[in-house]
Design goal:
heterodimer; A: mainly alpha; B: 9 strands
Chain lengths: 431, 602
C-alpha cells in the first residue's frame, strides 16, 4: 500500500514531472541529429538520388550443374562420435550402474510349463494370423526389376523334340502356370494405339492442311445435323406436341355419330351377308380323295425312280451345278473374310452402349497462335486415351452409373391442437 | 439316324457355348464387378462381340457384355484371383471389426492387407521383348499423361511419381541411343517417334498446362491400366538400359554442385536433375564405335528382308546417321517462356547440349552469359535493355522441331523472333499420291526432306511420285526403245555373220567345218535385272489394265489422259522456271560485272 505505483504520479508539480518523465528517447534523437549534422546534413532532408544508386547489372545466376567439375571432397563426419552427443555417452571409465535384481518365479514347474505353452501358442497364432503378410512384406527388400526376357535368346533347345504332352507337364512343373491361349495374342483391333495427328492439327499448320481439317469437321457437323433432322422428322413431326384437349376428345369419341343416320341404308345391306358353311363330305367323296392321293404318291415315286435312273445321263449337268456351288462358296468365303477385316478396324458392339467418338480437335483460323507461347490446346489427352481404348475394343463403352442414396423419409404427424380437437382438419406439415 | 440317340439340346454346342455373360463370369469367379474389371485389364482379357448375338446369348436379344468362356476359365488359374479372394475376406473382417467399434483391430487388419505384384504378367502377356516394344505406344502415352496429374485423393501419389520416373527414364534411353526420329507440335500435345531396336514407338506428351480432369472418363479404369503399364515400362527400361550398358536406375555421369537451396534434399535434387534430362547418364562400360562402320552385308540382309533396293536402304541409313548428329556442336540456351522438357528432349536426343536459367529449374549447365552459346530459343520480344549477344542466333522454338523433321538444320533467318514463321508440317502425314502436277521447288525440297527422298526428287526434277506407275512406265519406254535398238543392231550383225558363213559353205565345206570347229571365246550374257524388272512391271501394268471391266474402261483412260496432261503442264512450268532462273542468274552476273568495272574505273 505504501509504495507508489508508477501510474500514479503527482502531476501538479514541475519537479515531479522532471523526476518521473523519461526523456532518454528525446536525448537520443537529438544526439543523432547532431551527429548527422556533423557528417553532411540530415538524411531525411536529402534527395533519394543522393543516398541510393540504381543497380543496373543483373545478379549472375550460378549454373546448377558444373560440367567436368567435381564437388570438393569434404572430410567425412563420423556420425557415431559427434561431439555434441558426447555427454550422452557418459564419462570414460565410469560404469553403468545397473542393479540386477531378478524376482524369482516361485510358482510350481507344471504351472510355469502351462503358461509357457499358452504363450507360445498365442504367439504362433499371432504369427499365423493377419500380420503374416505384413511381416513378409517387410522382410522382402525392395528389389530391382528382373529381366523377364533374359532367356529370350537361349530358348529351350530341348523343346523341339519333346512330346507335346511331356512338354506341357514340364512347363506346368517348372512354371506352375497354365499357358495363355494362343488366340489371345491376336490384337483386338488393327487401329494404332496412338493415332497419328492430322496435319492440320499442327499448332501452326499449312493453309491447305488446315482447310482440309476444317472441311472434315464441317462434314461431321453436317452429318450430325442430318441425323438430328431425321430424328425430328421421324419422331416430333409425327407426334404433334399439342396435347389433346377435352374438345378433341369429345370430337373423337363422337366420331361418326352424326353420320350414322344418313348411311343407315348401306349398313342394312352389309348385315345380310352370312358366311357360308361348307357341306360335310360324303363317304364316296372321301374314298375317291384317298384313292387320288395314293395314285399321286405312286406317280411321284415313279418319277423319282425314273429321274434317279436317268441321272447317269445328267453327269455333265451335275458337274456344272457342283462347280457353280463351289464357286459360290469361294465367293462367300472371300466376302466373309472381307467383312471380318473391316470389323477389325472399327469399334465393335461390346455392350449396351455404343461407342461415341470425340469431336475433332481443331483451332479455328482466328484462333491459330502466332507462336508456341500462345498455343491454344484443344481436346483432352486423358479422354483421348480412354476413347482410344474403347475404339480398339479393349474396354466396353459404358455410361457412368452413380447410385444416389435414397433415404426413406420418415414421416410423422406432429400432435397439434387439431389432434386434440378432432373436428378440425389435420394438416401435414412435415414435408 | 432319326429317332435313335439322344435329342440334341438347344444352345448346348457351337457359338452358344463359347461365350459367357459378365454376370455369369462374376458368379463363376466369385469376385465383384470392380475386382473383375481389374483382373481383366491386368490379364489382358477383353469383351468379345459374337458373330450372331441371339445365338451366343441363348435366345436373348438384349445386348450383353460377353466374354469367351475359355478366357474366364483361364482367369481361374491366375494367382491374382487368390489374392483378390483374400482381400475380399480381409475386407469383411475389417468391416466386422469396425462394426464392433474395434478400430485398433481394423487398423491392424488394414495394415496387413495382402498385396499383389504384376511381375509375372509381363512375361505372360509379352512372351518376347519385341512384343513388348511393339505395344509400347499405349504405356508411354498414358504414363506421360499420368506424370503431370495432380495427386488428388483418388489417385495414389506413388502411381503418379512412378509414371513420371519411368517416362523420364525412357526419354533418357532415347537420348542416349539417339533414337528420336520424328517430333511434332500439335494442338493436342507433343508427338514423338523413336526407333527402339528397329521398332517405331510413337507417343504423345501433353502440353504442360493446368490439368483439368474430364468428367466422362472412368478414372479407376485408367489407373488400373497405368498400374500395369508402370510394371511393364519398368522391365522394358531395365532391359533397354542394359542393352546400352547404362546403369539402372539411372545415375548422372557428372557430379553436381551441392544444393544451395535448403528446401530440397540431396536426393530430391538428384531426382530433379535426372528429370531435367540435361546430363548424360553413367555407363557401366563405354560404348564401342564399331557400329559406325557401314556394314554392307548387314545392309544387304536388311534390304532383302524388307524387299527393297540396297541403295534405298543405304540412303535411309545415311539419313538416320545425319539425323543422329543433327544438333552436334549446337549449344542452345532455352528461354524461360519456352516449354523446357520437349525442347531439351529433342535437342539432346540429336546430339546437342542445352541449358536454361539456373533460377528456373535445377539441372542448368551454363548461364546465359556464356559466349559459346550458338542458339537461344526465345518466344517473346526481348525485354528492354537486355543484353543481346552477337555470337548466337536468337530463334523461335519451332526451329528445333522443324529441323528434326527436315533432318537438317533449317535456315535460322526464317525463325528469328518477330518473323512470321513457316508452317509447322507434320512428319506423320502420309505420302500423297500425286498426279505429277507441278510443285514449286521450294515446297518440293521441304516435302522431299520430310519423306527422305530429296535426292530422288532432285533427280526427277518434276514431281516426286514414287508410287505412281506412269513415271516408271515412261522411263521404261525410253529404256525399252534403247534396248530394242541395241537388239536390232545385234541381230543384224548376227545375220551378216550367218550370211558370210553360207558363202563360205559354198566355197569349201571343209574350211567351213574347220571354221566351225574353231573355239571362240564366248560372250558373257549380261543380265540386267533392273531392266527386266521394269519391263515386267510395265507388262504387269498393262495386263492389269486389261482386267478392267468394260464399263470402267473409259474412266481409266480418262485418268491416264489427265495424268499425261498434268505431266505435260508440269514439264512446261519447270522449263519456264529454269529459263527464269537462268535469266536471273545472267542478270546477276551482269550486275556484278558492271559493279566490278565501275570499281575498276574509280
Amino acid at each position: 500500500m505504501g509504495a507508489k505505483s508508477k501510474g500514479r504520479i503527482p502531476r501538479n508539480k514541475k519537479k515531479s514531472w522532471k523526476k518521473q518523465v523519461d526523456i532518454s528517447e528525446v536525448d537520443e534523437y537529438l544526439d543523432d541529429v547532431r551527429l548527422q549534422e556533423r557528417f553532411g546534413g540530415l538524411v531525411s532532408e536529402k534527395e533519394s538520388d543522393e543516398i541510393f544508386t540504381i543497380d543496373k547489372s543483373p545478379d549472375e545466376a550460378d549454373p546448377d550443374v558444373l560440367l567436368r567439375q567435381k564437388r570438393p571432397k569434404r572430410p567425412k563426419v563420423d556420425q557415431d562420435n559427434l561431439r555434441c552427443f558426447q555427454n550422452l555417452k557418459g564419462l570414460p571409465g565410469a560404469k553403468v550402474p545397473v542393479k540386477h535384481n531378478y524376482i524369482k518365479d516361485k510358482r510350481p514347474d507344471y504351472i510355469k510349463a502351462k503358461t509357457n505353452r499358452k504363450k507360445a501358442a498365442s504367439e504362433l497364432l499371432a504369427a499365423v494370423s493377419n500380420d503374416i503378410a505384413l511381416k513378409k512384406g517387410e522382410e522382402k527388400k525392395k528389389q530391382l526389376p528382373k529381366d523377364p526376357w533374359a532367356d529370350d535368346e537361349t530358348a529351350d533347345p530341348a523343346g523341339d523334340w519333346l512330346e507335346p504332352a511331356l512338354r506341357k507337364m514340364r512347363r506346368c512343373r517348372t512354371e506352375g502356370t497354365v499357358r495363355r491361349p494362343l488366340y489371345m495374342r491376336v490384337k483386338r483391333s488393327l487401329l494404332p494405339a496412338v493415332e497419328p495427328p492430322h496435319a492440320g492439327q499442327s499448332y501452326h499448320p499449312e493453309a491447305a492442311d488446315h482447310s482440309a481439317l476444317l472441311e472434315e469437321a464441317v462434314l461431321v457437323e453436317h452429318k450430325k445435323e442430318a441425323d438430328f433432322q431425321r430424328w425430328e422428322r421421324q419422331t416430333t413431326a409425327k407426334f404433334p406436341s399439342r396435347r389433346p384437349t377435352e374438345a378433341d376428345w369429345i370430337k373423337e369419341m363422337s366420331g361418326g355419330l352424326g353420320e350414322d343416320e344418313e348411311e343407315k341404308g348401306d349398313e342394312e345391306k352389309s348385315v345380310t351377308l352370312v358366311k357360308k358353311v361348307p357341306k360335310p363330305k360324303t363317304r364316296q367323296q372321301r374314298r375317291k380323295m384317298r384313292e387320288r392321293e395314293v395314285a399321286e404318291r405312286q406317280r411321284l415315286a415313279a418319277v423319282t425312280t425314273r429321274r434317279s435312273e436317268n441321272e447317269v445321263f445328267r453327269v455333265r449337268t451335275i458337274a456344272k451345278e457342283l462347280r457353280a456351288r463351289e464357286a459360290r462358296t469361294v465367293e462367300r468365303q472371300a466376302r466373309r473374310l472381307e467383312r471380318q477385316c473391316a470389323r477389325a478396324s472399327q469399334p465393335l458392339t461390346l455392350g449396351r452402349e455404343r461407342f461415341e467418338p470425340t469431336s475433332l480437335e481443331l483451332n479455328l483460323t482466328e484462333e491459330l497462335p502466332g507462336s508456341l507461347r500462345n498455343i491454344r490446346v484443344e481436346g483432352d489427352p486423358l479422354q483421348e486415351r480412354f476413347k482410344s481404348l474403347q475404339k480398339r475394343n479393349i474396354i466396353e463403352p459404358r455410361v457412368r452409373t452413380t447410385q444416389k442414396k435414397k433415404f426413406k423419409r420418415k414421416r410423422f404427424d406432429r400432435i397439434t391442437a387439431s389432434d386434440r380437437e378432432p373436428n378440425k382438419l389435420k394438416t401435414e406439415r412435415n414435408f | 439316324m432319326t429317332g435313335s440317340g439322344k435329342m440334341k439340346k438347344k444352345y448346348a454346342s457351337g457359338e452358344a457355348s463359347w461365350y459367357m455373360t459378365r454376370k455369369q463370369a462374376l458368379d463363376k469367379l466369385q469376385v465383384n464387378l470392380r475386382d473383375f474389371r481389374r483382373l481383366c485389364i491386368l490379364k489382358g482379357i477383353y469383351p468379345r462381340e459374337p458373330i450372331k448375338r441371339t445365338r451366343a446369348q441363348k435366345g436373348s436379344t438384349e445386348k450383353k457384355t460377353l466374354y469367351y468362356k475359355k478366357d474366364i476359365q483361364f482367369l481361374l488359374h491366375e494367382p491374382l484371383i487368390w489374392k483378390m479372394w483374400d482381400m475380399k475376406a480381409r475386407h469383411k473382417k475389417i468391416q466386422k471389426s469396425k462394426g464392433k467399434r474395434d478400430f485398433e483391430g481394423a487398423q491392424r487388419l488394414n495394415k496387413g492387407r495382402p498385396k499383389y505384384d504384376l511381375d509375372h504378367l509381363v512375361k505372360e502377356r509379352y512372351p518376347t521383348f519385341s512384343d513388348a516394344l511393339n505395344d509400347l505406344d499405349d504405356p508411354l502415352s498414358l504414363c506421360s499423361l499420368f506424370a503431370i496429374m495432380p495427386t488428388v485423393s483418388k489417385l495414389s501419389e506413388a502411381l503418379v511419381s512412378d509414371c513420371r520416373r519411368l517416362t523420364v527414364e525412357f526419354m533418357h534411353y532415347v537420348i542416349e541411343s539417339r533414337a528420336l526420329r520424328k517430333a511434332f507440335i500439335s494442338i493436342k500435345g507433343y508427338y514423338f517417334q523413336a526407333e527402339v531396336q528397329g521398332i517405331a514407338v510413337t507417343w504423345v506428351m501433353p502440353h504442360h498446362f493446368v490439368y483439368m480432369r474430364p468428367e466422362n472418363v472412368d478414372m479407376k479404369v485408367m489407373a488400373i491400366f497405368s498400374e500395369f503399364y508402370t510394371t511393364l515400362l519398368g522391365f522394358v527400361n531395365y532391359r533397354l538400359y542394359h542393352s546400352l550398358n547404362l546403369m539402372y536406375p539411372p545415375k548422372l555421369a557428372l557430379t553436381g554442385a551441392t544444393p544451395t537451396d535448403t528446401c530440397m534434399s540431396t536426393r530430391e535434387l538428384d531426382d530433379e536433375r535426372v528429370a531435367a534430362l540435361n546430363t548424360p547418364l553413367a555407363r557401366a562400360r563405354l560404348p564401342d564405335d564399331a557400329d559406325d562402320a557401314d556394314d554392307d552385308a548387314e545392309l544387304a540382309l536388311m534390304a532383302a528382308a524388307a524387299g527393297e533396293e540396297l541403295e534405298e536402304v543405304r540412303r535411309r541409313r545415311q539419313r538416320t546417321r545425319r539425323l543422329q548428329r543433327l544438333f552436334a556442336g549446337c549449344r542452345v540456351f532455352i528461354g524461360r517462356e519456352v516449354p523446357r522438357e520437349p525442347m531439351v528432349f529433342a535437342i539432346r536426343a540429336l546430339g546437342g547440349t542445352c541449358s536454361w536459367d539456373a533460377s528456373c529449374a535445377p539441372g542448368a549447365t551454363y548461364s546465359e552469359t556464356d559466349e559459346t552459346i550458338t542458339h537461344q530459343l526465345i518466344d517473346r520480344a526481348m525485354p528492354q535493355g537486355a543484353k543481346k549477344y552477337t555470337s548466337r542466333y536468337y530463334v523461335q522454338p519451332q526451329w528445333v522441331f522443324d529441323s528434326v523433321n527436315c533432318g537438317d538444320l533449317r535456315p535460322v533467318q526464317l525463325y528469328f523472333p518477330g518473323v512470321e514463321l513457316p508452317p509447322h508440317l507434320s512428319p506423320f502425314k502420309e505420302e500423297e499420291v500425286t498426279w505429277g502436277e507441278y510443285v514449286p521447288p521450294d515446297k518440293l525440297k521441304l516435302l522431299g526432306q520430310l519423306q527422305g527422298t530429296e535426292q530422288a526428287a532432285a533427280e526427277d526434277g518434276v514431281g516426286d511420285n514414287p508410287s505412281s506407275d506412269e513415271d516408271a512406265d515412261e522411263d521404261q519406254e525410253s529404256a525399252d526403245e534403247k534396248q530394242e535398238d541395241e537388239d536390232n543392231e545385234e541381230s543384224d550383225g548376227e545375220e551378216e555373220d550367218s550370211d558370210g558363213g553360207e558363202e563360205m559353205e559354198d566355197e569349201s565345206a571343209e574350211d567351213s567345218a574347220k571354221a566351225k570347229m574353231k573355239v571362240t571365246p564366248g560372250k558373257i550374257e549380261k543380265v540386267d535385272d533392273r531392266k527386266d524388272k521394269m519391263k515386267e512391271s510395265k507388262e504387269d501394268f498393262w495386263m492389269r489394265a486389261r482386267m478392267i471391266k468394260k464399263k470402267d474402261k473409259h474412266r481409266f483412260y480418262k485418268l491416264l489422259k489427265r495424268k499425261k496432261l498434268m505431266q505435260e503442264e508440269a514439264r512446261l512450268l519447270t522449263k519456264k522456271r529454269q529459263i527464269v532462273e537462268k535469266e536471273m542468274a545472267e542478270r546477276k552476273r551482269q550486275e556484278k560485272k558492271q559493279m566490278k568495272t565501275a570499281l575498276a574505273q574509280t
